[in-house]
Amino acid sequence: MNYDLSDKFNAIFNSGKSIRFQNVTKTKKGVSYNRIMWEEVEQTTGEQITSCFDWWGFDTIEDAVEDCLTRIVIEQM
To answer: For the segment 11-21, what is each residue's pLDDT rounded down to a tens digit?
Structure first.
């Protein structure tokens, strides 16, 4: 079964986790790039729990959503 972006976003938001997606500027070898990042934050304090900020990020929101959803599914196993 193929799921569209809306289905994937709904799965993330229905997971009960507080997830934030955002555009950030990353620099590599002096060149700036716009990247899409996600992070899970603690709902009451806003402190970061996990994120993709440790690596390069993603070119598209579709890739970022797929990565985030994969992480959620793996954690539930």
So the answer is: 999 999 999 99
Report CA-CA distances (Å) from 11 to 16, 28, 35: 9, 33, 23
What pTM was estimated for this model as a whole?
A: 0.81
Q: Domain limits of the chain? A: 5-76
Q: Are 52 and 36 in contact (CB under 8 A)?
A: no
Angle formed at CA 62 by CA 71 and CA 57, multiple of 5 degrees: 65
- On whether the CB atoms of residues 56 and 38 are closer than 8 A, the answer is no
Which uninterrupted H or E stretch holds 24?
A: strand 18-28
